Amino acid sequence: MLILCKNPKILHNLFKSVAFNEFFMSAISLDHIDRRILDILQSEPGINATAIGERIGLSQSACWRRIQSLREQGVIRERSVRLDREKVGLNTMVFAHVKLTSHGRSNLTDFSAAVESFPEVLDCYVLLGNVDYLLRIVTEDIKAYERFFFEKLSQLPGIQEVNSSIVLTETKHTSVLPLAAAS
To answer: Which residues contact 74 (CB under 8 A, 6 or more apart)?
Structure first.
């Protein structure tokens, strides 16, 4: 990766950022048994160690120890339930591209912390390129997004520009990682 930037303050903040450091962290070594366990857990988050062990030929205790080790190493972050956002009344999804002022860029962590407090923001990414952040936002409808934009997002200091793209149709959404491709 080549990073061209003449402003040392921006580079300093970039290299200090958690996102940048996580990007360059080395991956944890996973054997084929760990990958099989993770594949099963991704597709069936509620399954227990006994059932996983039966499928892959491990005892319950050996499987449980591997799962615990994967948790301790941070490979397994959480077990969660995926809800249908439209069935719970969150019918509008928006991707917002946020560009900060040059002064605002010195406060990347402040912006990130502020965005974390907004439950409407599901994902927040620091980007290299024309914009500084990409946010994935869900609301009840367009009017609710308008309120969120004017009352919360646009009130944050250091914002130069926000370009919002409203999702018409979601054709694919998954949290299942392609572990076979990473081996």
So the answer is: 28
Helices in the chain by DSSP H: which ranges? 8-16, 18-24, 32-43, 49-56, 60-72, 108-116, 142-151, 179-182
Chain-centroid distance of CA 133 in Å reads 12
Confidence of residue 2 (pLDDT cuts 50, 70, 90): very low
Domain assignments of the chain as residue spans, ordered by start:
32-72, 92-166
Closest CA to 101 of 91, 111, 92: 111
Distances in whole angstroms, Cα of residue 176 to Cα of each of 8, 27, 169 = 38, 17, 20
Q: What is the mean pLDDT of residues 173-182?
A: 81
| Residues 95, 138: Cα–Cα separation, whole Å | 9
Instruction: Please give the Cα distance from 144 to 103 (Å, whole number).
Output: 30
Residue-wise pLDDT for 141-157, tens only, equals 999 999 999 999 999 98
pTM: 0.73
* Topology given in CATH for the domain delimited by 32-72: Arc Repressor Mutant, subunit A (1.10.10)
Q: Which CATH number describes the domain made up of 92-166?
A: 3.30.70.920
Q: Which tokens is 128 given?
A: 């290299």
